[in-house]
Design a protein that fits this description.
The complex is a heterodimer. Chain A is built from 13 helices and one strand. Chain A is mostly helical. In chain A, helix 2 packs antiparallel against helix 3, helix 3 runs antiparallel to helix 5 and helix 7 runs antiparallel to helix 8. The chains are: A mainly alpha, B mainly alpha. Strand 1 of chain A pairs parallel with strand 1 of chain B, so a sheet runs across the interface.
């Protein structure tokens, strides 16, 4: 009798750098910065060790959310040029490892925040992970062009968490910082979506340029910039910050508005290199760094 | 549905070469190069894990000191 066998290759373990890549370190930088600024802008003194722990927990939670996002979206990532070299679509890691890593990291971050810092910041941290993974990644992203409008709240939590970690409560200023990132997210992501639209279309992600077209997206970028700039400047007239933040926010927002207006008012041809859109996307990242940096300087120097 | 219609016959699952049961399953052996790669990765992961655990222990120590100093639970 002839015996046949089925052979199955043993999986090669993923490199530790792939686990690091799973946490989206690029995105984490902005999350950590806004979280740290939220904490440093809060009144009172924070113990340096507990402050460091709070920032670490925010970073770990962002990494966990990024890992779970990549675990759920590995099929989409494989279809997009921008993301096809990530550990899961590139086949350098199995999906179960990514899931275990994301869940473990998220639980550790929330527990550490709750035990070392305070309960409120741990609850908001857990909420931010769940919002990003369940509301944005699982529910909204593949279903509606409003995905990043509502999902933008996930990225807006860090200053709120930083403030809560420092004070144990929530005030008007961190809520305004939350609103600022919430309103900043649509113009930021839609500027990106305009020049990577073929990628999103190939993956079947209903981003606004794919569903509603360029013209509608450009108009929306212009419209969202107005309340975003208003919220960015609002802490100054409300007496929550000094003139140094107010003037920085006004100038930085005016420059943002000028770039957004350029994107909103122009039409593109077939071989357009999308320079204004790329410029707006790049500046939008710098804009948050400038505003949050100015907020901390304003708090400590006045 | 009338009673004279016979129930559909269930076709047994047939595997390759006429097997009615799945053929024996064995893990494929890795080549020497793959084994070396696996060893390298296991070693680097073990080092990174050890460093992280060490860092966590130091962090926990300082958190405990900070908590005791501030008098918070």
């Amino acid at each position: 009798m002839i015996m046949t066998t089925v052979t199955q290759p043993l999986a090669i373990p993923a490199d530790w750098r792939d686990f690091l890549a799973l946490t989206k370190p690029g995105v984490m930088r902005l999350v950590v910065f806004t979280g740290a600024c939220g904490m440093l802008a809060a009144p009172g003194q924070v113990d340096p060790v507990l402050g460091f722990t709070a920032i670490l927990c925010i970073a770990l939670a962002a990494g966990a959310a990024g890992a779970l996002n990549q675990w759920y979206e590995s099929d989409l990532d494989a279809k997009m040029k921008r993301t096809r070299n990530r550990p899961l679509p590139a086949g350098r890691m199995d999906r179960q490892s990514a899931l275990h890593f994301g869940v473990g990291l998220g639980c550790f971050a929330v527990l550490l925040m709750g035990l070392a810092v305070n309960l409120l910041s741990a609850v908001i941290l857990a909420g931010s992970i769940l919002f990003y993974v369940l509301i944005y990644t699982v529910w909204l992203k593949r279903r509606t062009p409003q995905n990043i409008v509502i999902g933008g709240a996930a990225g807006a939590f860090p200053p709120l968490i930083g403030w809560a970690a420092a004070t144990g409560h929530i005030a008007l200023l961190p809520v305004l910082l939350f609103a600022l990132i919430f309103l900043w997210t649509p113009p930021h992501f839609w500027a990106l979506a305009l020049f990577v639209r073929p990628d999103y279309a190939a993956a079947g992600v209903p981003m606004l340029p794919v569903v509603a077209g360029d013209r509608a997206t450009r108009t929306q970028i212009g419209l969202y910039t107005v309340p975003m700039a208003a919220v960015a400047i609002a802490p100054w007239p409300l007496g929550l910050t000094h003139a140094s933040y107010g003037l920085t926010a006004t100038i930085a927002s005016a420059f943002f508005a000028a770039l957004a207006a350029r994107v909103a008012l122009r039409n593109t041809g077939a071989d357009d290199r999308m320079r204004p859109e790329k410029r707006l996307f790049g500046y939008s990242i710098a804009y948050l760094f400038i505003l949050f940096g100015a907020l901390v300087v304003d708090r400590w120097i006045g | 549905m009338s009673d004279d219609v016979p129930p559909p016959e269930k076709e047994p699952i047939r595997y390759s070469q006429g097997h009615r049961v799945p053929p024996p399953f064995v893990w494929q052996k890795h080549s020497e190069e793959e084994n070396a790669l696996i060893r390298r990765r296991q070693k680097s992961r073990a080092i990174v894990t050890a460093l992280l655990l060490g860092a966590i222990i130091i962090l926990f120590f300082f958190i405990s000191v900070a908590k005791i100093r501030s008098g918070t639970p």
